[in-house]
């Protein structure tokens, strides 16, 4: 493959990004290219980002389009959230009501969609003079809840994740059926059982040839009401984290905090790092917390300084809020409610992908590749007849 340097992708991120080397792929017509990192193992890419970034933030999504929007805006990781998946897939709270194969299939479709999205954006829209965008594929981190059963359920789920191209997964120590970390009544399995699940996840990834697969151990010890240990609260969470790190298996430890208070976060990181100075953590900057009421909300940068390498935030609240706003306006004004939304989409110069489903969904890509393969039914004469002022 011939490596060619191109300018950075327009609008891919608010921060300056290094220009990725670009290469040809048989899935694009001659002259179009994608970042060479397309063929890098997602887990290897995630490990590199964890080592080189102050922190890695992954917006929490539950479907391919949500993940594509994350990628479109230049974020370097995607979090496939179990909490979000429960809402989006089943319309219910996070109570272990879906199975491992269900969320694994959602993750598989999402990883596939990101790879396809890289191709569609690398084409741009030549007919309209829209240049290509060379977006790198963010590694996908997937919730594994409590493993959906015993170690053999963990074995199957991990195999599904790894073969789907998932970069990392987190496994938690709750008694099954588990519940959302912000719901009361949580109980913990014995530490030995959790370590067995972590060992299985690591063994499966290694057996499949992906030794870079990132394993994250999550504990709900801080707010659990029942556990084999006599300790409770932060002491139990620290004890669990240390026991997991003692095994040498988890790459990161995730403590689920019940509130936005920064005190327990700081104490947890200090106590764990007192014994494991290089320990890395994951943090749920939960959308369940009333951050707007917090007089001193902890920042992503501050978390990064404390050793929190991966940070996530559920994005489905924004999805729900936006759709609710549209439906409320249409309930009052029928079509005028939608026209008002479209007016907001099109005002200003900032790129909004939803106002051009034609490009975002890959119509130019399908048209060009179809012609290259002599299989395009949509002729150029039809495209030329479209009134650009009336049809998006």
Largest sheet: 8 strands, parallel, barrel
Number of extended strands: 11
Count of helix runs: 14
Coarse structural class: alpha/beta
| Subunit arrangement of the protein | single chain
Based on Cα principal axes, name the global outline. globular
Q: How helix-rich are the residues, as a percent range?
A: 40-55%
Return the string of H and E elements. EEEHEHEHHEHEHEHEHEHEHHHHH
The CATH architecture term of the largest domain is Alpha-Beta Barrel
The CATH class of the largest domain turns out to be: Alpha Beta
User: How many domains, as an integer?
Assistant: 3
**What's the CATH H-level homologous superfamily of the largest domain?**
Phosphoenolpyruvate-binding domains
CATH topology (fold) name of the largest domain: TIM Barrel
Gyration radius, in Å: 23 Å
Mean pLDDT, to the nearest integer, reads 89
Could you characterize what this model shows?
- Helix content is 43%, strand content 12%.
- It has 392 residues and is α/β, with parallel strands linked by helices.
- The strands form two sheets. The chain has an eight-stranded parallel beta barrel, surrounded by seven helices. The protein has a three-stranded antiparallel sheet with strand order 1-2-3.
- It is globular and about 65 Å long.
- Residues 1-15 and 381-386 have low confidence and may be disordered.
- Strand 7 (168-172), helix 6 (191-207) and strand 8 form a beta-alpha-beta unit.
What layout of secondary structure does this protein have?
Elements: E1 4-5, E2 21-23, E3 34-35, H1 42-52, E4 56-61, H2 64-72, E5 78-80, H3 82-90, H4 100-123, E6 140-143, H5 151-164, E7 168-172, H6 191-207, E8 214-219, H7 234-246, E9 252-255, H8 262-275, E10 281-284, H9 300-305, E11 308-314, H10 316-333, H11 335-346, H12 357-360, H13 363-372, H14 380-385
Parallel strand pairs: 4-5, 4-11, 5-6, 6-7, 7-8, 8-9, 9-10, 10-11
Antiparallel strand pairs: 1-2, 2-3
Helix pairs in contact: 2-4, 4-5, 4-13, 5-6, 7-8, 10-11
């Amino acid at each position: 493959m011939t490596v060619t340097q191109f300018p950075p992708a327009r609008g891919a991120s608010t921060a300056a990004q290094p220009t990725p080397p670009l290469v040809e792929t048989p899935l694009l017509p001659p002259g179009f290219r994608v970042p060479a990192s397309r063929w890098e193992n997602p887990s290897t890419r995630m490990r590199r980002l964890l080592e080189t970034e102050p922190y890695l933030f992954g917006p929490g999504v539950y479907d391919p389009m949500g993940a594509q929007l994350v990628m479109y805006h230049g974020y370097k990781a995607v979090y496939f959230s179990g909490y979000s998946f429960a809402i989006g897939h089943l319309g219910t709270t996070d109570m272990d009501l879906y199975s491992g194969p269900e969320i694994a299939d959602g993750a598989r479709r999402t990883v596939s969609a990101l790879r396809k999205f890289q191709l569609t954006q690398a084409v741009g829209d030549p007919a309209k003079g829209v240049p290509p965008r060379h977006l790198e594929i963010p590694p996908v981190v997937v919730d594994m809840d409590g493993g959906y059963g015993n170690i053999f359920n963990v074995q199957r789920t991990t195999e599904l994740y790894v073969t789907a191209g998932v970069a990392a997964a987190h496994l938690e120590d709750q008694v099954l059926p588990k519940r959302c970390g912000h719901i009361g009544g949580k109980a913990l399995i014995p530490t030995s059982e959790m370590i067995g699940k972590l060992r299985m996840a690591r063994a499966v990834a290694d057996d499949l040839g992906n030794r870079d697969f990132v394993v994250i151990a999550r504990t709900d010890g801080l707010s659990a009401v029942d556990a084999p240990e006599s300790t409770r609260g932060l002491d139990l969470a620290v004890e669990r984290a240390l026991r997991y790190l003692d095994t040498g298996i988890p790459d990161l430890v995730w403590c689920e905090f019940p509130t936005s208070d920064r005190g327990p976060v700081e104490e947890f990181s200090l106590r764990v790092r007192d014994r494991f100075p290089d320990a890395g953590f994951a943090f749920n900057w939960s959308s369940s917390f009333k951050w707007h009421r917090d007089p001193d909300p902890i920042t992503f940068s501050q978390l990064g300084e404390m050793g929190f390498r991966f940070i996530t935030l559920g994005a489905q609240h924004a999805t729900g809020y936006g759709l609710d706003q549209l439906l409320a306006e249409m309930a009052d004004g029928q079509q005028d409610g939608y026209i008002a939304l479209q007016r907001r989409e099109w005002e200003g110069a900032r790129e909004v992908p939803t106002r051009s489903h034609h490009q975002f969904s890959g119509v130019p890509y399908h048209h060009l590749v179809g012609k290259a393969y002599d299989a395009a039914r949509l002729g150029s004469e039809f495209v030329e007849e479209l009134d650009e002022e009336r049809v998006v």
